[in-house]
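Our preliminary data section would be incomplete without showing what the modeling component actually yields. Below, a chain of 376 amino acids is followed by its predicted structure, encoded as tokens that our downstream tools consume directly.
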Amino acid sequence: MKKVLLTALVAGTISVASAQNSAVNSAVLNHKNGTLDKALADIEKATEHKKTKEKPKTWFYRGVILQDMIGNPIYGKNTDENTPLEVLESFNKTVELDGENGEYGKQVPERMQMLYGQVLNQAVEFHNNQDWPNAISKYELAHKISPEDTTAVLYAAYASTADNKYDQAIGFYDELLKMGHTTEDVYKAKVQLQQATEASDDAIMQTLAAGLEQHPNSVYLMQEELKYYLKNDRADEAMAKLDKAIAADPSNASLYAVKGNLLERKKDLDGAREVYKKATEVDPTNFDAYYNLGVLEFNRGTDVNNKAAKMDYATYKKKGKALEAEAKKYYQASVPYFEKAHEIRPDDKSTIQNLINVYTRLGRKADADKLSAKLN
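Predicted structure:
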């Protein structure tokens, strides 16, 4: 009798397990036939039964079925914003149970890449509709799916900035830096956001210093760093740093251009002029040096003109014409520098506007009109 009861018990056990395995197989078959709602119902049963809930095949097909429902014209209505996360959890569970090289575990990477694309597309759609919170949420999920891909994090930073969530955007830029995405634009964006949130000077200077380690020739980062050196009464330290950098790399025109900028800030205009000229000798295509030389000469002319404008009539009759002639000389001196800068960067609007101004002051109406037409 005991033997009969034992046999019956075993038979019952086999029957239940077989039924649950059948649920998995039925899910696979329904998935193959395209009846995804039935496939999902079957596979959900299998995830809850003790005989199949720890099987990698169960979780792999749960992920596959849910994933294939996303965007499906018939079954897409059965999904919601949490579906991609459920897919991710299913594939992670597959690898946890099967390992990366198991029968199902080794199929996960391709499916994860597909999921990344699906979620990123959703994020972009929200982004294009300026639905920033949902876009950011999807970008964050895309990053979870593909932790080494920087695209989602970068666009999350853009979306956060557009949504005026500057602290959040800074966090995304920090994540990019941790991932090794250390482009100049990342440091530049982070600095600008720190400035917008009124971060401490020390915090901003740390970002600038880190950026300059990666991009020692960045004119923007160098100039911003100089600004904070000057703001904190560290001009001499900044000059020493620049001189050391120039001694180590005397053929780097950008360093001379930045030093000229620092000398300007210190009101040493003659020194700035000489350093800018040195930059053009080292690199005849250095836009910043030519542009700044043009500005220096133009401003000298404007200063002289302003003196004439402030004279009373009697004084003007005696000295005004001479001052205007002197101002014209400086305006004329600015022309070749602005023209060279325009040649280097034909579309730079500031250069075009300055050339229009100086041509107008020199009576070169045809040249001014020609550039005005280009600007408009």
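The two ends are 102 Å apart (CA to CA). Confidence is low (pLDDT under 50) at residues 1-20. Preliminary results of this kind motivate Aim 1 of the renewal.
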